[in-house]
């Protein structure tokens, strides 16, 4: 685990991200990656972020991104 567990919420050790543990387990089942395994992608110097109009609302602005992970996996994050 790449973070501090608070109930079902996990906060990354650098405080930049937080996620729900059951959702991370679900993501692993669906896509083969836990959320903590994806965190290094956000430090990719070529990370490309795009506004996600379809999933944004007045309450929450959402983004999609493209990044490299582990020197060969290209992730599409949403």
What do these coordinates show?
This protein has 78 residues and is of the alpha+beta class. The protein is 19% helix and 35% strand. It contains two helices and six strands; from the N terminus they run E-E-E-H-H-E-E-E. The protein has helices at 21-31, 35-38, and strands spanning 3-6, 9-12, 18-20, 48-51, 63-69, 73-77. The strands form two sheets. A three-stranded antiparallel β-sheet has the order 1-2-3. A hairpin with a 5-residue loop joins strand 2 (9-12) and strand 3 (18-20). The mean pLDDT is 87.
Structural descriptors:
globular, 78 residues, three-stranded antiparallel β-sheet, alpha+beta
Spell out the blueprint of helices and strands.
Blueprint: E1 3-6, E2 9-12, E3 18-20, H1 21-31, H2 35-38, E4 48-51, E5 63-69, E6 73-77
Antiparallel strand pairs: 1-2, 2-3, 4-5, 5-6
């Amino acid at each position: 685990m790449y973070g501090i567990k608070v109930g079902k919420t996990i906060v990354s050790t650098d405080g930049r991200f937080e996620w729900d543990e059951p959702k991370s387990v679900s993501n692993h089942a669906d896509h083969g990656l836990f959320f903590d395994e994806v965190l290094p992608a956000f430090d990719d110097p070529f990370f490309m972020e795009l506004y996600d109009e379809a999933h944004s609302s007045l309450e929450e602005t959402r983004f999609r991104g493209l990044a490299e992970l582990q020197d060969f996996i290209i992730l599409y994050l949403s």
